[in-house]
Each structure stands twice: as structure tokens, then as C-alpha cells.
Write a structure and sequence with these properties.
The chain has helices at 25-28, 35-40, 64-77, 93-102, and strands at residues 4-7, 14-20, 43-49, 84-89, 107-109, 112-113. The chain has a single domain, classed as Rossmann fold (3-Layer(aba) Sandwich). Helix 3 crosses helix 4. The protein contains 4 helices and 6 strands. It starts with a strand and ends with a strand. Strands 1, 2, 3, 4, 5 and 6 form a 6-stranded mixed sheet that branches. The chain has 116 residues and is α/β, with parallel strands linked by helices. The protein is globular and about 40 Å long.
């Protein structure tokens, strides 16, 4: 089960799906980014907890393909008809790679943030 928090902006022009494995990512949004900044640039943010993190149940038989399919189903369910951006943060970066690999026709781009 995916837990979703959606900041709805009425005149948004771009969609961003936020992926983090920190607990609980869906409640945090993007660290250091305020809603007012997203509004200024017309970004609609959708954030959810990856399986086994935050409010989401673990699923032991999952793989990166199923992760990409989760993003696709999530995008469709919130009304994203075209391409969307995926932000991978920390270990969420491998899931953003999965989106590029398995659903490239729906991905506008995917910045990733990794810290060593």
C-alpha cells in the first residue's frame, strides 16, 4: 500500500514525484523546499513512502520494475496525463533510475541526490 500526500496547486504546470526512503518521507516533502517555492514555479508535488518506510507496508517480493509501475499507477490515479519528473533522494535514487528504465515514455527527467 502506498501512502500519498499531495500538495495541490491550482495553476500548476509541472508534476514532480518525490522519492525518499527516510521516515516518513510523504510527510516531509522535500527537505529545505517550501510550498511557496513550488507555487512560484508552478510545481505540483506528489510524495509517497516507499514500501517498508514510513507509513507504508513492506513487500518482500518487490523489485525495481514493480517500483516503476507503482509510480505509473500513482501518476495515473492523481491525474497526471503526460510526462512527470521524479526526484530520487538518497536510496530513493535507485527507484528514480527504475522509472527511467521501465517507464521512460512518461518521465520528463529525474534529478537524483546522493550523499557519501
Amino acid at each position: 500500500m502506498l501512502w500519498v500526500r499531495n500538495w495541490e496547486l491550482l495553476d500548476s504546470t509541472s508534476w514532480l514525484i518525490n522519492l525518499m526512503s527516510l521516515m516518513p518521507c510523504a510527510l516531509k516533502g522535500i527537505p529545505g523546499v517550501k510550498t511557496s517555492l513550488l507555487e512560484e514555479f508552478g510545481v505540483r508535488l506528489v510524495s509517497y513512502d516507499l514500501p517498508g518506510f514510513g507509513e507504508s507496508d513492506p513487500h518482500t517480493r518487490r523489485n525495481l520494475n514493480s517500483s516503476a509501475m507503482d509510480m505509473l499507477y500513482l501518476a495515473d490515479s492523481v491525474g497526471i496525463l503526460g510526462k512527470f519528473w521524479v526526484l530520487g533522494y538518497s536510496s530513493g535514487s535507485m527507484h528514480s533510475w527504475a522509472a527511467l528504465r521501465y517507464i521512460p515514455d512518461r518521465i520528463a527527467g529525474t534529478p537524483t541526490l546522493l550523499f557519501l
